[in-house]
Amino acid sequence: MSTSAAQAGARALYDSLITSALHALQVVETSLKGTNSNSQIEKRLKDVLPPDTPTQVYNFVLALAKEGQLDQISNIVHSFESFTQTDGERALIGEVTSAIELEAKQRQHIETDLRSRYGEHLELQFRIDPSIIGGLIIRIGDQVLDNSLRTRLSAVQRNMLSS
User: Fold this and answer.
1) Which residues contact 41 (CB under 8 A, 6 or more apart)?
2) What does the pLDDT read at residue 163?
3) Judgement on whether residues 135 and 66 belong to the same structural domain of the protein
4) Average pLDDT of 134-145?
5) How many independent structural domains does the chain possess?
6) Which of 17, 35, 127, 134 has the fewest C-beta atoms under 10 angstroms from its C-beta?
7) Of the residues 84, 113, 148, which one is the last residue of a structural domain?
8) Are residues 8 and 58 in the same domain?
9) Enclosing domain of residue 156
10) Separation CA 137–CA 98 (nearest Å)
């Protein structure tokens, strides 16, 4: 399966889960106001929740009820809606490692280039590791671009030893 097909599949799964979870929470928010007893809540939950409700949502609402926190469901729904407003665009974490401290202009250039490739939701952290000698190591999600001098010297050494 190609990366783009995997991403499309992951996006479809994400959309499905988020949509059904949000719908279930909204149903609970409107249907269970004024319900207080645990036995009454458990029965009402089974009656009002759609059949495609994820088990985690059911268990979450039930736990809220048992803890006497069901009055917080409106705040939870509002916060959950805020999380989903990014349309699945979660921040992607990236790390740039250099041998020396990069100047602000260099950092800005790297950030601009990487954001154009990976999107605006990229959060970059810059680290210094003198052991790489020179160059950069860039990690974005599970991808690594190692253009460090240490790695290049190691490759030259391996080539010389294998000859």
Assistant:
1) 32, 35, 62, 65, 70
2) 76
3) no
4) 89
5) 2
6) 127
7) 84
8) yes
9) 92-162
10) 7
Tens digits of residue pLDDT in 88-99: 556 678 899 999
Domain co-membership, 96 together with 78: no
Model-wide pTM > 0.70: no
* Residue that terminates a domain, selected from 47, 66, 84: 84
Same domain, 135 and 106: yes
Higher pLDDT, 160 or 78: 160
